[in-house]
Design a protein that fits this description.
This is Bacterial sensory transduction regulator. About 35% of the residues lie in helices and about 30% in strands. It is of the alpha+beta class.
Length: about 160
């Protein structure tokens, strides 16, 4: 017997992450939660009951004021090769933040197993993307293999 497709609520997202042993810190009045996973601030959001966004942020040691384009170039290179997850260098704080993000559509509803699979894949992808961008940045700075390309995180 197959599971029934139901609309996805943010409580469903919280419960599935709990099944993985991850407790989300919830926002007061928005369907948003976050957790520290492997040193990355990972945020989960349900947008208008149509999509779930999973986003990982990591603050670098690079000052925005220094104007070093390395992380911006690394994100651009990553985005040229990987389509399931996107990367951006955020310059709205004192230090550059690397943000990786993916989303999946839930508007038509999902089974519990589908939601679980999508959340696991999304978390794996945003964390792998963070590592890829860091490796690309290191290679651009001459601290790694200059022939390095983004690893395909598409599942």
């Amino acid at each position: 017997m197959s599971e029934q497709v139901t609309s996805v609520t943010f409580d469903d997202v919280v419960n599935v992450m709990g099944e993985f042993g991850i407790t989300l810190t919830l926002a007061d009045d928005e369907p948003i939660g976050s957790a520290n996973l492997n040193g990355y601030n990972v945020t989960f959001a349900l947008v208008n009951n149509t999509a779930v966004i999973v986003r990982a942020d990591k603050t670098t040691e690079e000052k925005v004021a220094d104007g070093n384009p390395t992380f911006f170039l690394a994100c651009n290179h990553f985005n040229a090769y990987v389509h399931s997850t996107k990367a951006a260098a955020v310059n709205r704080t004192e230090m550059v933040i690397i943000r990786t993000e993916c989303e999946f559509i839930v508007a038509a509803g999902l089974t519990h197993e589908q939601l679980k699979t999508y959340l696991k894949s999304s978390v794996d992808n945003v964390l792998a993307a963070q590592e890829n961008v860091a490796q690309l940045a290191a290679s651009l700075q001459g601290n790694g293999n200059t022939e390095s390309e983004a690893k395909d995180t598409d599942n």
